[in-house]
Amino acid sequence: MNLFYRDTGSGIPVLIMHGLFGCADNWNLMAKKISSENYRVITVDLRNHGLSPHHEEWDYHCMAEDVKELCEKLNLKKVIFIGHSMGGKVAMYLSAICSHLIKAMVVVDIAPRYYPPHHHEILEALLSVNLPFLTNRNEAADILSNRIHEAGVVQFLLKNLYRKDDNGQAIFAWRMNLATIVKNISVVGAPSPFPSEKENQIYPVLFIRGEVSDYIVDKDRIDILSRYPAAEIITIMGAGHWVQAEKPEEFFKCLLDWFLRKDLVLKEQAS
Fold first, then answer.
1. Which terminus of the chain has fewer CB atoms gathered within 10 Å of its CB, N or C?
2. DSSP per position, 212-271
3. Handedness of CA 80, 156, 132, 118 (dihedral sign)
4. Contact (Cβ atoms closer than 8 angstroms) between residue 62 and residue 47
5. Is 271 noted as a catalytic residue in this protein?
6. pLDDT at residue 270 above 60?
7. Measuring CA to CA, how many Å separate 140 from each of 43, 106, 174?
8. Class of CATH domain 5-114+190-270
9. Is there a contact between 206 and 264 (Cβ–Cβ < 8 Å)?
10. Shortest CA distance to 182 belongs to which of 119, 110, 129, 113?
């Protein structure tokens, strides 16, 4: 599958994967900051999201295969993978099927464990928007707000709304493949497989969690370290699930400090 991606900067390749209902654009500002530090940053729309193709098949295996195919297309040999939430699960799946591509892995606010479906409120809100009769974005915002009371989440979801041509008439549509996501929502919570290099981990791994998020809790440490024995787990104080958006400066500093400690920098930059 030919995934949509943005490619900026030069240096060590960093490939960033968004979470459920997200897209590459969610990471534009962070990608710009990272690329300014001598990194080539690729932000990708995973299948059924953003500008990437829609497909009825949707699970972590096929999403990981898509990313692997993109790395081969771009001739990327050793990559720093960063994945938030669902994207973090894709990164962990990559560690099981193609660990040779991984230079380092950063998983943002998701653990390897199973998560029961918990997006029903958001899905019901999205489905309640009658797209053919929608006349403007404010109407959509009002409809979503009737079911979702966090303004930030509403604005995040509205990034998926766009106008498309339908027989000469411009109508609103969702960029994400909402029908397939609804049908396969249980896929998002699937547990991650063990990495292929578990006994001899040859790349550094970092888990970043938000202090006020419940996606990575203290008891997850055992599961994380059973899969990635040398992993570090760092907490960003005051952050919720969208760590990089809620605490961007703290997240960026945490990332760069870890890159430096793990020698994930260009030699001329390090000197």
1. C
2. T-SSS-TTHHHHHHHH-TT-EEEEETT--S-HHHHSHHHHHHHHHHHHHHTT-S-HHHH-
3. positive
4. yes
5. no
6. no
7. 27, 34, 11
8. alpha beta
9. no
10. 119
**Regarding beta strands 205-210 and 79-84, do their DSSP bridges make them parallel or antiparallel, or are they unpaired?**
unpaired
- What tokens does 178 get? 């909402």
Residue type, 185: I
Q: Which of 18, 49, 84, 241 is catalytic?
A: 241
| Range 174-200 average pLDDT | 89
* H or E, element range at 83: strand 79-84
In angstroms, the CA 175 to CA 21 distance is: 9
Which letter, b or e, does each residue of 180-212 get, where b requires 16 or more Cβ atoms within 10 Å of its Cβ?
A: bbeeebebbeeebbebeeeeebebbbbbbbbee
Which has the closest alpha carbon to 18: 112, 117, 90, 104?
Answer: 90
Q: Which residues have CB under 8 Å from 174's CB, separation 6+?
A: 126, 131, 160, 161
Q: What single-letter DSSP state applies at residue 53?
A: P
pLDDT tens-digit profile of 7-55?
A: 999 999 999 999 999 999 999 999 999 999 999 999 999 999 999 999 9
Q: Which helix (H) or strand (E) holds 153?
A: helix 151-158
Helix/strand number for the chain, H first, E second: 11, 9
Helix (H, G, I), strand (E, B) or coil at 190: coil
Domain boundaries in the chain? 5-114+190-270, 120-183
Active-site residue (options: 52, 85, 95, 213): 85
